[in-house]
Give the backbone structure.
Amino acid sequence: MTGRRHPVSVSGAGWVVCSMAVLGLAGGLVFGWTELLVAGVFALAIAIGASLFLVGATRGRIAIEVLDRQVTAGTPATVAVRVSNDSGRRSRSQPAEFVVGGRVESIQLPAVAAGGSREVVVSVPTERRGVIQLGPVTIVRRDPIGLARRDSVRSGTAELFVHPATVGLSVSTTGLLRDLEGIPTADLTDSDMSFHALRPYVTGDDRRYIHWKSTAKTGAFLVRQFEQTRRSHLIVLQSLNPADYASDDEFELAISVVASIGVRAIADGTTVSVFAGEPRSARRRTGRRGTAAGTAAGTAAAAGIRGSAAVAGSGRLRVRTPRDLLDDLSATAEAPNAARLTAVARSVGESAPDASVVFVACGSTVTARQLRAAASHFATGVEVIAVVAEPEAEATLVRIDSLRITRVGYLDDLVRTLSRAVGA
């Protein structure tokens, strides 16, 4: 990438030296003061000498490569700054500045032989979940005494997705989703896969469904009747409104809950939809504009974290692969104007009427009454399991009618509480 040269920046000491050169030369020549003239010449010599260090073309290309594509919060990531020399001469080592999440890291680019390439490995701390902006890399030319510097931006930017922590869920945890023949409903049909009962034959019935053994015993034609089945569709949703969480730690734990359930469902091949906040269509109808992007943009200047297009655009996250989901969850953030949990459940219930199982993740400020109201927006027969994130709380399970409420204090509690919830 061709460097984009910035204007030379002069430090405070540099301006003092330039002023001394101008005033010393002018004052010495006008007033005939030899000492002042000598001082001016000396200051001018220093300024010219310093400027010579800023002269010269910067050769080669610099690229940023993220070596760790799957990074979990708390695990340091490794990023490589690769320097390539396309010229016919060996390039010398030179200092550079590398922007990492809003911070400027000083690095030393190595000397590179003609036609070769070398890299500098940088360790990036990842204390919290988020999307860290990497780059650009700026080559810095400065004089030894710090009077001036010249910057040349030599690379583009890259993103490092720091995924939320997840826990591996057992097969039994998602057992209620694993019936490949579908989930039986209360609707009866003449042809399906879930056998219900026998009934007398009527004209027009398909003879393939005549139960011949029962017909032989009773002397009258009997046909099989089935329960209509539907394909398993798992919904995972959470609110982005800070009022639904007592602290940032609760929100982070809820994010990890959503990530763990979603990743397991994707790995199992289950039809799954994950919502962070209201679907986009619902926001258009209500005129609500709160999204994850608002908060993410507000923190970008300080932490180099931004919201993804998927989160900010629709509230429905990508679930094609586990990595897609984790990348979107990395950029998910609280938004003060976002819908509360009950409103999110209503919108999701309208946009996904074929849901068979719904997981609701929220914080401890959401009451049981609010959870029941959220569950009421889904069709009768839909399994609703609410996971309340409350760090360091004791893991519990409560069943209220068709709603199961689990409380987790640690992410590891999710395995045990969901196993109990599925069996309850």
The longest strand covers residues 130-142. Residues 61-163 form a domain with the Immunoglobulin-like fold (CATH 2.60.40.10). The first helix runs from residue 12 to 31. The radius of gyration is 33 Å.
